[in-house]
Design brief:
The protein is an all-alpha fold and 32 residues long. The protein has one helix spanning 5-31. It contains one helix and no strands.
């Protein structure tokens, strides 16, 4: 399965968002 250049650009950004949301969730749990 080949990824187009556009897909390659989107994927890293999607991972950054996933990680950012995950970290935000952890910080909320710690403060709660």
């Amino acid at each position: 399965m080949e990824l187009t250049p556009k897909a390659m650009e989107i994927t890293p950004k999607a991972w950054e968002i996933e990680i950012f949301l995950f970290i935000s969730l952890i910080h909320k749990e710690e403060k709660a």
